[in-house]
Amino acid sequence: MVKDIVGEAEFYRIKGDKCYLEPLDYFERVANREFRGVEKKWIFHFFKAGLRDNRPKGLFSDTLVLTCKDMKAIFDPIIADIKDKVNEQVQAVMAKRLSENHPQEGRPKAILLVGGFGSSEYLRSELVQQFPGIQVMQPDDAWSAIVKGAVLSQLPQKVTVVSRQATRHYGVSAGSIHDAEKDEGHPKYMDAYGNWRSLRMTWYIRRGDTLGHSQKIRFHFYRTLQDLSDESLQFHVSLKQCELIEAPDHPDSTVEVNC
User: Fold this and answer.
1) How many CB atoms lie within 10 A of CB 243?
2) How many domains does the chain have?
3) Which residue segment(s) compose the domain that 117 sits in?
4) Which domain of life is it from (predicted)?
5) Long-range contacts from 252-259, C-beta under 8 angstroms, 24+ separation
């Protein structure tokens, strides 16, 4: 839909940039879960994208406003396909139970929704209407539970975790020499040596990085001191975190203190 609104050339220009990834992340985390098919406007900000206004389609000042009708145009084709696939699975379960003289022949008791789109409240409500006699469930971490159950059933009882995947970005903020292009629109300050600096993020661990369970991670971080007093040798550094798909280059409201 975004490509149809902004045009193919503009879409591919912004596709990999933060200005596109942030509204995409908002759609996946918030709109996907909270859209219920009722009248409400959904607002997506493409910060500093420089897009040409298309007011008839809801785009102006790098802000896209989608109506309930627009959202349904996104969701309905996907949900129609899911309904067909779920119906096939329900019929297959009923046929299998009948052929095996299962003591609980008939429809299954529950439909389990998993994955990112499985968290959609709109999808759940549509399936409830389609299958009134079957409970539609959206358990937390459903995919994780299913995968763990499938794997553990084929493994010895003792399982060793050898690695994990980072679910956030982790790093620190520090003053870097001000760059008029990179730091445009961000505050700058003068350090003790007369240099203009701006705060930038250094991300040591990126979301999605694989981390060994016993792996030690070391990074270089240094300070420039004006004197060597006892007070100047006491440092307090905050580890920052961010849950966006693409972490920002500068500290902003999406960056939080971890510890």
Assistant:
1) 14
2) 3
3) 100-160
4) Eukaryota
5) 255/173, 255/201, 258/170
Shortest CA distance to 6 belongs to which of 41, 57, 73? 57
Higher pLDDT, 249 or 162: 249
Lowest mean pLDDT among 79-83, 130-134, 162-166, 170-174: 162-166
Domain boundary among the residues 134, 160, 186 is at 160
The verdict on 176 and 252 lying in the same domain is: yes
- pLDDT tier at 91 (50, 70, 90 boundaries)? confident
Q: What DSSP character marks residue 54?
A: B
Q: How many CA within 13 A on the CB side of residue 67?
A: 5
197-226 burial: b if 16+ Cβ within 10 Å, else e: bbebbebebebeeeeeeeeeeeeeeeeeee
The rounded mean pLDDT for the chain is 81
Together in a domain, 173 and 253: yes
Q: Report the side by side order of strands in the sheet with 196-205.
A: 189-190, 196-205, 169-177, 240-242, 255-257
Contacts of 61 (CB under 8 A, 6+ apart): 53
- Give CA separation, 161 vs 151, 165, 207, 211, 216, in Å: 13, 11, 19, 11, 16
Residue 79 resides in a domain: no
Cβ atoms of 61 and 74 closer than 8 Å: no
Q: Compute the half-sphere exposure of residue 144: CA atoms within 13 Å on the CB side of its CA.
A: 3
Say whether both 174 and 231 belong to one domain. Answer: yes
**Looking at 114, 130, 160, which one is the last position of a domain?**
160
Per the domain annotation, does 75 fall within a domain? no
How many CB atoms are closer than 10 A to CB 145?
13
